[in-house]
Amino acid sequence: MSCRVLVIEDEVIVAMMVEDMLSELGCKVAATATHFTQALELAQALDIDFAVLDVNLNGKLSLPVADALAARGIPFAFATGYGGKALSGAYAIAPTLQKPFQIEDLSEVLRRSGLAVG
């Protein structure tokens, strides 16, 4: 069974790139969210195995979305162009993909989260 992934990204082109990478790795994109409210709703309810979470969604930090995922025990990775500077406290230890990232980086994060990918 392939892993079901939620992609949270406000840049449509970047979201499409991540979706393509996930498909190539044998994962199914369960949904894509481009706005904070949509992302939070999906993080709270969608049946997923993992999420790729843009740190900054149209100027709003997505940390409450990360909290919702963590509360449900769903692993996730932050994706950011700001590096580790954007994350502090408990978030600083979360897996982070530095934009622009490659498929190998995404594959490694998924594997470290215990998901089988191709």
Describe the structure.
This protein is α/β, with parallel strands linked by helices and 118 residues long. It has one domain (4-112): Rossmann fold (3-Layer(aba) Sandwich), CATH 3.40.50.2300. Helices cover 36% and strands 24% of the residues. It contains four helices and seven strands, in the order βαβαβββαββα. The protein has a five-stranded parallel beta sheet, with helices on both faces. A two-stranded antiparallel ribbon has the order 4-5. Strand 1 (4-8), helix 1 (12-24) and strand 2 (28-33) form a beta-alpha-beta unit. Helix 2 (36-45) runs parallel beside helix 3 (63-71). The longest helix has 13 residues, at 12-24. The relative contact order is 0.19.
Beta fraction: 15-25%
Structural class, from helix and strand content? alpha/beta
Task: Look at the structure and give the mean pLDDT.
Answer: 92
- The CATH superfamily is known as Response regulator
Number of domains in the coordinates? Answer: 1
Order of helices and strands: EHEHEEEHEEH
Radius of gyration (CA) equals 13 Å
Biggest sheet details: 5 strands, parallel
The CATH first-level class comes to Alpha Beta
Strand order of the largest sheet: 2-1-3-6-7
How many DSSP-defined strands?
7
The general outline is globular
CATH topology: Rossmann fold
Mind telling me which CATH architecture this is?
Answer: 3-Layer(aba) Sandwich
**Separate helix tally:** 4
Q: What separation lies between the terminal Cα atoms? A: 12 Å
Helix content: 25-40%
Uncertain residue segments: none
